[in-house]
Fold each of these.
Amino acid sequence: MELLTPDIGVVFWLAVVFLIVFFLLKKYAWGPILSALESREKRIEEALRAAEAAREELRTLKREQERLLEQAKQREQEIIAEAKKIKETIIEEAKEEARLAAQKILKEAEQEAYLIKEKALSEFREYATSLVISLTETILRKELKDKKDHEEYIQRLLSETTIHVAGRN
């Protein structure tokens, strides 16, 4: 039971030792501990402020990135629209060139056909002329006694010539 009812001397020395430990802790430990805690608290506050500043900077950078991305999309759309216009212009120019080339070829073909036709008509005229001259010469060389013989001879020559001309084509 002595432990439950301490002696006054023990309580006194216990109080003295407590005060000495308290004084020593206050003088040598509490100051450095409190200053370390205060300095740690300041560092934590600075780190929190830096983290908040970094978050704000990150938000700003994200907004800037979104703005740049939107500008890039707009530029892309502009480039695509410009490319479509250029494509349409090139197609229209090619169509116009093809139309002009087709007209030129058609005119040349018409001119060539006209020249061929004129040449064929000229050759036909020459052949017809030489045929008429040949028939006339043959008729003039043969002397016929009457008009009826003369007409029969001309008809025979004409039919021979027609067969000859039809066979030539």
Amino acid sequence: MELTSKESAIDSCILLRIILRDNPSQYQQATSLLLSGTEFYVDDVVIMEAVYVLTKEGMSRTSILDNLITLLDNPMLDYDRQFYSGVFERYDTHPSLSFDDCVLEARIAMKRKEPLWTFDKKFAHQSTSAKLLSSSEKAA
């Protein structure tokens, strides 16, 4: 394995192989990569995709959070820890909100672009940022 810069980035597949351990060879390679002493950038899309895949794999929210937080606790992984701390807490305490809704709500609040207009009644009722645009009976 050849790393060419002080900080590289990783894809969600690296996180997923470590959490799922579904491919022993790739699990070993991913683990070795993260233990290489190099700092790795973890983009928001990587975290969101990992949560999506783990959900589709049937993993519970608690298990997703336990595994992801444990893995992301590695000091060599560079991501917005403060931001995701709030997102993870919101995702844990609001089981009917999707992970993307939790990320969107946190991002909107951080950028002070409130209110976040939506047709999604469920989201609007559980969000501190979202406001319902329509009184339609159908939720998105």
